[in-house]
Amino acid sequence: MATTSNGPRPDQGSSEQPAAANVPKAVADVGLDVPSQPFLDEQLHGQTTRTTKRSRRTKDDTGPASTNTSEPVAETTDPAHVHASVQALAARIEPEAPVPLATLPDEIRQSVTALQPGRRSTHGSKYSLAYFPGPQVRRPCGDRFGYLTTARTRSATRLPFTAANRGLLTALGTAMAAPGRDAPIADSTIDAGMTYAGQFIDHDITLDVSSSLDISTDANTVHNMRSPSLDLDSVYGRGPALDPFLYDMPGPGANPTAIKMQLGTNLPSGPGGPGGPAGSVGMVQHADRDVPRLLGSAHTAIIGDPRNDENLVVVQLHHTMLRFHNAVVDAVLASGFSGDVFVEAKRIVTHHYQWAVVHDFLRAVCGPTAVSSAMSSVSAPPNSAFRMPVEFSVAAYRFGHSMIRDTYWLNFNFPAGTLAQVFQFNRNPHLPVRSNWVVDLNAFFPTGIPVPVFNKARKIDTGIAAGLEHLPGFTGMMEMLAVRNLLRGLALGLPSGQGVARAFGITPLTAAQLTAGLPAPEQAALSAAGGVLLTRTPLWYYVLREAAVLKGGNRLGPVGARIVAETFARMLKRDPDSFVNQPGGFVPILPGASAGAFTFADLVTFTRMNLP
Questions:
Q1: Beta partners for 411?
Q2: What CA–CA distance (Å, rounded) separates 609 from 291?
Q3: CA 259 to CA 330: how far, in whole Å?
Q4: Contacting residues for 82 by C-beta, under 8 A, at least 6 apart
Q5: In this structure, what are the phi and psi dihedrals at residue 182, rounded to the nearest 5 degrees?
Q6: Domains in the chain: how many in total?
């Protein structure tokens, strides 16, 4: 059985580092001892290993710095409109940066641009670690990514980080999203709501802001900026004491601990959302079914994780989670609870959410057998060491990308909303979310209220919805999701799908199974260069293909299911506060369709987001 690497690898920490901000191109295989951002120290301290001559001034030199006019000059502000003290300071700032913006990885430069209100996209965004609090980045005990498989398995089965292999993977990713590749659309048996529940869950446990497609990187050096536990920090942030802007504090005379979450408003645009049992005539013009947002033109969401404002469906799910907490606060108050209402409500919300993740989401995508096996076999004592495995975060858990549809029944107004609209109507000038675009979650989760079309997720396979190949806010390689996923796995040195299968004691897929029934361009991409991708198949692609071949696209296959289920089991077991570590065990107490159970559909119903 494969083991989890929870500490630094023996070969980690090489003293050799590339020149500052020189993003090494893959001309030959590169070792994985490179930190995720080798230019960080220069950004923070001005250290340099560059040979370019830089102008310097002494501390007594108050004159303007000399500049090399042959190099690009940064944009400046008109001195006539700058305060004299600002001009004085500007004269003392060295204009030649130790790490010029143009030399930063393309992902970082595009991600910063994509934050602008007109584009606003956070999907896969990468930023300089200097944007984040120093202790969060510098401390050796900070959360990191790591590996599930052994170094031997990875080195023996990974694709070398070379220009040739980058070309092979680019061709494969392009074939996966070729026009018409996934037509006709094949529905799975999985509810479409699980696609977006999976995205919400991902934003609760992982956030890689620093790894690059262009740097061969040891995952142990990559920071995870989310807590690797299902603690809903994407909702609660750092709590009401440190992030009070997320919360609706009780007024005078109210229980001071009955702290709720802030809710947003809607842009009045007519009836929308669920019609309830009455159907379309039951729709109303909602005024409070969005997340809270800053006033002004940007309408930035005031939530614990900005990625949950990425598209219309996931932001409506985040709004549902805010209502979930508030409804539980009301229930705790009604019970006459004598303790801290917020603490008790958060505990109830978190435990029921965790239960739904295991018993609803995981059982749907991994299958009951894989989930039961993982929950019974994984050993992870409370507070034990853990690094989020990139075999999970960069490969197996990205199965959800293949489940996304090009069109959805969103509500009675929009029976065939396109994926482009799902992104468009979560951006200006349509913010706050328009009242007529409020999503009818009865079409995503089986609440028992009928709708004309109940959305099913696409089958898990290697076809990617065409709408995902033009992600808003990005251009070039950054907007091509399938290519990015494949190159990310290459840069982080992931083992092949065959290598993981053998490590698990599972018979790998054959070349015939990998290629059977695929379009000719995809078969050609797999067979190129002597068929290296058929023997060292990228783990993400292998997981998708395994699901399609062995499970008809209706759930993950044995390798993918084991990686996903065991990672969740380990996260829950090592968290002393999770539902699995509650004294005497845990049984849901909130109302559900079945006694002793709780699903995401029950959560939607409890919050009354299934009704007008």
A1: 414
A2: 14
A3: 10
A4: 90
A5: -105, 20
A6: 1
